[in-house]
Design brief:
Layout lengths: L2 H16 L5 H17 L4 H15 L6 H20 L14 E6 L6 H13 L5 E6 L6 H11 L4 E2 L7 H12 L4 E6 L7 H14 L3 E7 L5 H13 L3 E5 L7 H10 L4 E5 L7 E3 L2 H8 L5 H11 L2 H13 L4 H14 L2 H7 L10 H19 L3 H5 L3 H4 L2 H10 L3 H18 L16 H14 L3
Parallel strand pairs: 1-4, 1-5, 2-3, 2-4, 5-6, 6-7
Antiparallel strand pairs: 7-8
Helix pairs in contact: 1-2, 1-4, 2-3, 3-4, 5-6, 9-10, 12-14, 14-16, 16-19, 19-20
Length: 458
């Protein structure tokens, strides 16, 4: 995400730290690099100019001397980008036992229906009784899409494919919806915010009385986000924004800063197609990732979203009984895959974000995990329950390799990794008292980052 901006920021901080004297020429180079990156990220040009002038002004303050001046300028540079992105993290307040209704708005192509399911899944995995209702009566197959997503994420979904009045659909299910802590409402979109759409949204808002009206916009619309956010805010009094497609474009700077300018806080960002490619937007953590310094809070949130707590609890109980087998191992690596790609995970671990590891090497690791899963699927129940038998009767390795499209070397690596995980999860490894059902603590994650920062091999 926004690699050029991250690179410019890192370069700027390095130049400040390495400069013997912070003369006007050095400051000018730092500001130019930053401005160029901001413009490439589609941030408003007037805003870019304003930031540049402010940094230059602060840098020319003769009252600040020596090391203090370097620290002061570093802070100014950091704070200006932080201010640009919204300064602080904003949260949707939800309480168990007290219903919260969130109504999502957006134009065609913003990813509103997919975001409805991601948002519902996010809160469902945090213990809230969550449901979705589809009130998009205009887009063909909108109801079917929401139903399919509901089945995929095991979320109660309410739709009516024949009714063309969204208020009637809401009234039809109103009584059933009362039993949920959280109701996510998917509404219709248009190619533009026309009078018909405004009227429909206002009527729905009056009937539903949502606690939050949230606008969904895609990152690649860039500076057009400002007008869209402003228009929706005037018409519907939106309380915040969710930005989708943050994984696919450098234009995200326009969408992020535009929302801040219109005083509509960004609650979440979507970074991919999967349910877990969805995270709260924290400007401070976002900058940390841009600088390659990691984001432990974001990674822990991803772990919480990806882990099936019931499945992990069962795995822990089996482990305590000594029954942990390769099928349990397979389930654990599937859940690891739900967190995201290796490159995304590395980006969030302090110390690894700056690591110069070629993409093909990371891809090899992901391919290796797929091979492990295929190999397990080719094993007999006896081999799954007692993997040590494969080390005693090595002729079995050739059969499994042939049936799964892998090599005997792949299977030996699988057994080695299985043993390491078993040791790790039982508390005998470096991170003691690991509880899969509770996720990984920040202290444990820091130990993990330190360990892998030194020993990671490909």
């Amino acid at each position: 995400m926004l690699e050029n901006l991250g690179s410019a920021l890192k370069k700027g901080f390095d130049k400040i730290a390495g400069a013997i004297f912070l003369d006007s020429k050095t400051i000018e180079l730092i500001v130019k690099d930053l401005q160029r990156a901001l413009i490439q990220a589609d941030v408003n040009i007037m805003l870019v100019k304003e930031i540049g002038e402010k940094i230059k002004k602060e840098a020319s303050n003769e009252k600040i001397k020596g090391i203090e001046k370097k620290e002061h300028l570093t802070k100014i540079l950091h704070d200006e980008i932080l201010s640009l992105l919204g300064k602080e993290k904003h949260e949707i307040k939800i309480t168990k036992g007290k219903q919260t209704k969130i109504m999502l708005l957006g134009l065609y192509g913003s990813g509103k229906t997919t975001t409805t399911s991601k948002l519902a899944s996010y809160y469902f995995k945090r213990g809230f009784k969550t449901s979705m209702i589809g009130l998009d009566v205009h887009r063909p197959a909108a109801s079917e899409q929401l139903e399919q997503l509901g089945k995929q994420y095991k979320l109660p979904t309410f739709t009516n494919k024949t009714e063309k009045n969204p208020i009637k659909i809401y009234k039809e299910f109103k009584k059933e919806l009362e039993e949920y802590d959280l109701v996510i409402i998917d509404t219709a979109g248009r190619h533009s915010l026309d009078k018909e759409l405004i009227t429909e949204i206002k009527n729905l808002e009056k009937e539903i009385k949502p606690d939050y009206v949230i606008l969904v916009i895609q990152a690649d619309i860039g500076q057009a986000a400002k007008n869209q956010a402003s228009e929706f805010q005037k018409a519907c009094n939106i309380r915040g924004v969710i930005i989708t497609r943050m994984d696919s474009t450098a234009k995200a700077g326009g969408a992020l800063t535009a929302c801040n300018e219109t005083k509509a806080p960004v609650f979440f960002i979507g970074t991919g197609e999967k349910a877990n490619d969805f995270e709260t937007f924290n400007p401070q953590s976002f900058i940390s990732r841009l600088l390659g310094l990691g984001d432990l809070e974001g990674l822990l949130e991803k772990v919480e979203s990806a882990i099936d707590k019931e499945s992990s609890k069962n795995a822990k109980q089996r482990l305590e009984k000594g029954d942990f087998n390769l099928r349990d191992f397979q389930e654990q690596i599937k859940q690891m895959g739900n967190i995201g790609s290796f490159s995304k995970i590395m980006e969030m671990i302090p110390g690894l974000g700056k690591a110069k590891i070629p993409e093909e090497m990371l891809g090899n690791q992901e391919e290796k995990i797929k091979k492990f899963q295929h190999a397990i699927d080719s094993m007999t129940q006896e081999e799954i329950e007692d993997p040590e038998i494969l080390e005693k009767q090595t002729q079995r390795l050739s059969r499994i390799a042939k049936g799964s499209g892998t090599t005997t070397s792949d299977i030996r690596q699988l057994i080695k990794q299985y043993k390491l995980l078993k040791e790790f999860a039982s508390g005998q490894g470096d991170l003691e008292n690991f509880d899969p059902s509770q996720g990984i603590s920040q202290k444990q994650m820091q130990k993990l980052a330190k360990k892998f920062g030194k020993k990671m091999k490909f």
